[in-house]
Backbone:
């Protein structure tokens, strides 16, 4: 059953998604670097992060960025494994580990962003 | 997929990349490919580290700034600068790959690859200026 499933997947969709997420990541990465390095001392202090996080649209951008970067990175890693002829059991183990790892970090990132309060900063 | 393979076209065998890259037949394309792979792996590893290192935001200002203090200093600035080199190569080469795939880039392959390096080196130097002009 798994064999049938994995042999049906040609990887064409993940190839396209890899390119689309790549193009989007260029935009996010440029923005991120302008924020963090244009004023090297002022870009990454707690105050700077806190001030950005007061805007919900910034939080949405931030979370879109992590989501895409984790997807793109782990889909890329999966693509590397796909270059090798793996047994279907090994494949299932690897892809499950990648998905679990990805989800764990994704939720952690979301939790970090949502824990930053609106209004008054935490000391 | 039933097309005949033209024996004059040398195809790059990904599984044999170590051999190809070490042989006398090396070609820039195979280096682009292996560097793309290395930089991609480095970036996802960095992203995990990055999420971990901003996680003290949960506890507030004191905890976050204590964490960030361990990442400041000239040595870490250099590490960050080289991280940027990985980001640059992966991003520019990634755009190059997309142009080759979707915009007939195969017709001007060599120029594209040259531009990747020229733009990359210029941006790398510019970033060095931004990052270090206030230190030195
Ligand atoms: C900055 C914009 C980026 C662009 C334009 C981009 C573009 C691409 C493209 C087009 C591929 C597919 C290569 C192929 O099919 O031959 C790829 C692969 C990959 N990318 Fe990215 N990427 C970017 C950012 C990132 C980031 C932030 C990460 C890590 C979190 C990452 C990790 C990877 C990995 C691991 C691969 C697989 C490498 C391989 O198959 O050899 N990329 N990237
Ligand atoms: C060395 C340069 C960098 C610095 C100083 C830096 C700094 C920061 C800071 C302070 C945050 C906190 C949230 C915010 O203010 O938006 C953040 C978030 C983030 N950074 Fe970076 N960053 C750097 C490079 C990168 C790179 C190369 C990537 C891509 C792989 C990246 C991906 C992210 C993502 C996805 C988030 C959101 C994390 C979350 O929502 O939990 N950063 N960065």
Residues:
């Amino acid at each position: 059953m798994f064999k049938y499933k994995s042999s049906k997947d040609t990887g064409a969709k993940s190839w396209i998604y890899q390119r689309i997420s790549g193009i989007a990541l260029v935009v996010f990465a440029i923005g991120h670097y302008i924020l963090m390095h244009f004023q090297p001392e002022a870009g990454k202090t707690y105050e700077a992060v806190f001030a950005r996080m007061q805007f919900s649209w910034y939080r949405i951008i931030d979370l879109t960025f992590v989501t895409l970067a984790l997807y793109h990175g782990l889909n890329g890693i999966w693509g590397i494994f796909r270059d090798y002829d793996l047994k279907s059991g090994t494949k299932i183990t690897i892809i499950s580990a990648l998905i679990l790892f990805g989800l764990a970090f994704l939720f952690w990132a979301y939790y970090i962003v949502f824990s930053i309060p609106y209004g008054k900063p935490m000391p | 997929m039933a097309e005949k393979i033209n024996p004059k076209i040398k195809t790059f065998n990904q599984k044999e990349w170590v051999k190809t890259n070490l042989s006398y037949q090396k070609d820039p394309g195979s280096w682009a490919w292996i560097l793309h792979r290395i930089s991609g792996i480095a970036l996802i590893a960095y992203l995990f580290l990055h999420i971990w290192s901003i996680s003290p935001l949960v506890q507030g200002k004191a905890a976050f700034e204590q964490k960030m203090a361990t990442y400041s200093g000239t040595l870490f600035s250099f590490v960050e600068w080289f991280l940027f080199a990985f980001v640059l190569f992966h991003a520019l080469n990634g755009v190059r790959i997309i142009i080759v795939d979707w915009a007939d880039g195969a017709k001007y392959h060599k120029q594209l690859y040259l531009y990747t390096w020229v733009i990359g080196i210029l941006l790398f130097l510019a970033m060095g200026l931004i990052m270090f002009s206030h230190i030195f």
